[in-house]
Design brief:
alpha/beta, 19 strands, globular
Amino acid sequence: MRIAIAGAGIGGLTAAMLLKKAGFDVVVYEATSELRPLGVGINIQAGAVRILSQLGLEPALAATAIETAELRFANRHGQTIWADPRGRRAGLPWPQFSIHRGELQMILYRAAQAMLGASALRLGRRIAGFEQRGARVQMRFVDRDGAPAETAEADLLIGADGIHSAVRAHYHPDEGPPKWQGILMWRGVTVGKPFLGGATMVQAGHHTQKFVCYPISRAHAERGEALINWICDLHMGESQMLRREDWNRPGRLEDFLPRFEEWCFDWLDVPSVIRAAHQVLEFPMVDRDPLPRWSHGRVSLLGDAAHPMYPIGSNGASQAILDGEALTQELGAGSDPEAALLRYEAKRLPATARIVESNRRKGIDVMLDIVEQRAPDGFEDLESVLPAIELERIVGDYKKLVAQDRETLLQLAADAGRS
């Protein structure tokens, strides 16, 4: 069975390798003509690292990434609200990794080249149209300039072509642009001093003004430095969303830095970190409404094409990796491939839709807003502001929702081992 995957991002490449390992013939088509190590930082949750480890990628990840030891939430005064060990520090068999997205992309790309063969990775091929004819999917691809580049056939087509997915748009042509609730994000990477032990991810502030930071480079850590990935979120009101071509545009410090000038914590000088960034990028925080279905005959969706979500709880890439595992499991179970795609959808669509909807309601970040509302000037006793029982319920409910609690992670691993 030949499976075509549109999109060579994190989800597409992971799915391609998992499917190839399971014995399928896989070809990946990618719109860009050259994959390069672009972007800023990203977190890969332990449950997703488990899957990448099965592909033999954990040593390469560990060689460049930071093994995240702790996730910490703080108010805008830098006071800790909640801290939780991550990965192996939490007693799991796998680590959580904080890594430069570009480094992760290239690790996956090189591994896919070795596993699938270079000819199975078709760059400069953006999917422009397709139709199903019997048991085959006929596809048309164009190059960067929109000129015809290739036609191809496959038994299945998986759209892993991102939030602006052409495969998704084929079935939902009137969906319109992604949904925006008024929050802009500015992102950068800064070389600085290690903070909070050198392996901590921090989310500080509240929903309408938040600062996220974590180190992403083992090489810098070994030199006694920290390559700090940081994100500033600001609610900008109900103004018009940026046009698509303006996404990832260079950001201007004067548009957001004044709001963070007083954020000088005893563990990090936030404005100094922002000023020291080599480059600042700006783009909107967006998602899309969950779909009623992903699969149509021999075509289905994966990753951001299926369930783009707000970057709360570090779930985007990790959920795409989980998609790839579920897709491979169902196709590997045999029988009718169309029925397998429906089983994959039944397994993953409801779970990811709940995450999309939870993240719109602030997800685990709701603890930040509770503390800001109840103690805007800071606190001396957290228990009097956010009782432990209430905090534990927020954390526990979200961990179960996104399958990051220990019991669910171990059960998923056991189920994968039996498949």
